[in-house]
Design goal:
Elements: H1 3-16, H2 23-46, H3 62-74, H4 83-94, H5 106-115, H6 120-143, H7 146-152, H8 156-164, H9 168-183, H10 187-196, H11 207-213, H12 217-238, H13 241-258, H14 270-276, H15 281-305, H16 309-323, H17 336-349, H18 355-364, H19 369-375, H20 383-401
Helix pairs in contact: 2-8, 3-5, 5-12, 6-7, 6-9, 6-17, 9-10, 10-12, 11-15, 14-15, 15-16, 16-17, 16-20, 18-20
Length: 418
């Protein structure tokens, strides 16, 4: 084979069409990932390891979730929003100086109280298994295939979320239910899912823009009623005082971000990447705002012009992770949802050029951005949601132009997308 022939095949089959991304290779990678995830969680929760505190507590993010739920059950929910007191509580329990903040609204604390009735390690496992199962159901509703859904919930980002004991699988599942509801004209159910998503409000910034752009008032109203109902339930369960303390604590989260209390390399926002590169707070926030404005325009344009959910989901979720200054590496789990929509449409109708390789890039690097940022000094995290946003805009453009998709539709027995 001549060098020119090799370069041509490499470009067309390897990069442009992603022909090497066959189902047998993807299936093998998913099998290895699933085994690794299972063994990793067993090691984390059942085997003595470097994440264990002197008291035997596993020092992961879920510690703050469990304690928040325990304080709700104990009748002192306000304590988790007083940083000094909450830090002291964690140190007393774990016997370690490692502490985790809790910047979520009381609605999430109310939800966590149900898990806090269990011992810590059992609660950790049940929380991760149940929220990941919800994401699996969400992906099944999108793709129509349990096998594809199972593959999607063991991608690196989801594994990263599981090891931290974080809630990104839950928020991704809610986003999936919201988008499936809109696609299937179940607007009230879509609004309920979106209303529950307010447990992590920075991830819902662009959703109202999308709903107004598409004139979807039923979902907007349903989401509003659900949000108010959840807030009212939290007041009844936790008391009105916890909301007062929550709002008083809000500037602490902003200060933590500005001063690097959460390591910038572990974050994925445009703001954190600029800070890591040595750019000051004011300029970084100004550039973050400019990016956010551009993303808002993209979301408005897409949700106004097309009902193609592969396009809508890619732009909305990719844009959501770009518009917020406060997001961490495990939040890249949200990208599973637009990946599911794009893979579904690609398997049915064929993939556009470069889509398979772009999906492989996003999925394979979805848990690696902290390593690039911390050890190599390369804050590449915003490139992943940006790639998803670009994929959605490009899909809308190519569909509008009526261009033929040059890749043949994939099948479960043949090729598939990563």
């Amino acid at each position: 084979m001549t060098a020119q022939r090799f370069r041509t095949l490499f470009w067309h089959k390897g990069i442009r069409d992603g022909a090497w991304l066959t189902w047998d290779r993807i299936g093998f990678a998913c099998l290895c990932s699933g085994i690794g995830l299972s063994l990793g969680l067993i090691w984390l929760l059942l085997v003595p390891n470097s994440f264990g505190a002197p008291s035997g507590t596993v020092l992961m993010d879920y510690l703050s979730f469990w304690l928040a739920g325990r304080q709700a059950l104990a009748g002192a929910p306000e304590l988790v929003y007083i940083p000094a007191d909450f830090s002291a509580l964690q140190k007393e329990l774990s016997g370690s100086d490692t502490v985790f903040g809790f910047f979520y609204p009381p609605t999430f604390q109310m939800l966590l109280s149900s898990f806090a009735m269990l011992p810590y390690r059992a609660a950790f496992a049940v929380f991760i298994l149940s929220t990941t199962a919800l994401l699996c159901v969400s992906c099944r509703l999108i793709t129509g295939k349990w096998l594809l859904a199972a593959c999607l919930i063991i991608v690196p980002a989801c594994a990263n979320n599981a090891f931290h004991g974080q809630n990104a699988a839950l928020t991704a599942a809610l986003y999936g239910f919201f988008l499936v509801g809109v696609e299937r004209q179940r607007m009230i159910l879509a609004g309920i899912a979106l209303g529950i998503l307010t447990i992590k409000p920075q991830l819902g910034i662009l959703a109202p823009v999308a709903l107004v752009a598409s004139l979807n008032w039923r979902t907007f109203l349903s989401a509003s009623v659900t949000t108010l109902t959840l807030a009212a339930a939290s007041v009844l369960f936790l008391g009105v005082g916890v909301w007062q303390v929550f709002w008083q604590q809000a500037p602490v989260a902003s200060a933590m971000m500005e001063l690097g209390g959460v390591e910038w390399g572990k974050m994925i926002s445009v703001y954190s990447s600029l800070r890591q590169l040595g750019i000051g707070h004011e300029i970084a926030m100004g550039l973050q705002a400019a990016v956010g404005l551009g993303v808002l325009v993209c979301v408005w344009k897409v949700w106004r012009r097309t009902e193609d959910m592969a396009v809508r989901s890619a732009v909305l979720i990719g844009g959501t992770l770009l518009v917020t200054p406060f997001a961490l590496s495990y939040d890249l789990t949200l990208l599973i949802v637009p990946c599911a929509f794009v893979i579904r449409d690609g398997l049915r109708n064929g993939f556009f050029p470069f889509e398979k390789i772009l999906l492989a890039f996003v999925i394979s690097l979805s848990a690696s951005t902290p390593a690039f940022a911390i050890f190599l000094g390369v804050p590449m995290a915003p490139l992943l949601p940006l790639a998803m946003l670009w994929l959605g805009l490009r899909r809308m453009h190519l569909s509008a132009d009526g261009r033929e998709q040059t890749s043949e539709p994939g099948h479960m027995s043949g090729t598939a997308s990563a």
